[in-house]
Amino acid sequence: MVDLIARIERLKTPVLELEARGVVCEALALSGKTGQAAEQLQTLADRASAIGLAPAEADARLLLARLTKDEAQARSAQSLAGKIGAPLRLARAARLRADLSGQSPGPGAGEQVKAQLLERVPPESIESARAAWGQGPLPI
Predict the structure, then answer these.
(1) Is residue 122 predicted with pLDDT exceeding 80?
(2) Which secondary structure element, helix H or strand E, spans residue 8, and what is its range?
(3) 17-26, 72-81, 119-128 — which is least confidently predicted?
(4) What is the DSSP string of 44-75?
């Protein structure tokens, strides 16, 4: 594992490093090595913060919060998601914080996220989707 981490640190671009660390975190978590996975997620979040990749940092902190049941990490992920205008990340963080604290995420949280997402979709896309509804699979 130490050799793998050393090889990751030699990657030429920070984005590749973050992606590689994410894969390592997932593998560690799936193999039951949650302590090591949490350590790597913390490193991933710190590196993402250092290079200014707030979406990657928010994702790492959210995964770390889920893995460690740490409400402070969930709060940090929620704050980041709010700053970068990421409604799905914001909703996931709010849901996790509510789960960790034993509270409800609040009435209308899902509707608020839906409204925020729809604000970002061009009206012509919505009309095209409505026109295609029920006419079989969309050509891709």
Answers:
(1) no
(2) helix 2-9
(3) 119-128
(4) HHHHHHHHT-HHHHHHHHHHHHHHHT-HHHHH
